[in-house]
Amino acid sequence: MKSGFLIFFVCLTLLVFCPIGLAAEKVYYIGPGDVIEIAVWKDPELSRNLVVPPDGIISFPLIGSVNVTHLTVPELRQIVTQKLSEFIPDATVTVMLIEINSLKAYVIGKVKKPGEFFINQATNVMQILAKAGGLTPFASDGDIMILRQKANQIIKIPFDYGEVEKGKNPEQNIILQPGDVIVVP
Predict the structure, then answer these.
(1) For tag attachment on the chain, is the N or C end more exposed, with fewer CB atoms within 10 Å?
(2) Taking the model in full, what pTM does it have?
């Protein structure tokens, strides 16, 4: 009886705490094109929606410019609250992500529907190729390339569609990052 209770307790603990650990790994960072709302309670003149420009620097009354690139919503709220505290002590600031527009990847070449596609933090190569309608009959499925910008250089990541489709080398089916370009020759 005690061993059955112990197993039940361990399973219950895993069910309760594992999703929290998994969710903590998936953090969203504000990026160019995203729409954020910054609101200051009881001060409508300081509340506004802002589109994050390509350089990631927004301007907000009283505090000036803030680089929001690679900040989470809670981090931005903390920065705005801290900077506003010089002018408005005990300001209650709310920051909300209204639209996510920075999570995009691109598929070009011999696919049925090339273009720009919204991705999430778990979209892989096969999924975006499916969004693009799949490969055309003339596509070279063994020579697909993923182009990824890292700092000031472009990294080329090879992808063999035929192998992944057959279950070989599934590690090639990587998670995409914003800005990735999938080239299907």
Answers:
(1) N
(2) 0.71
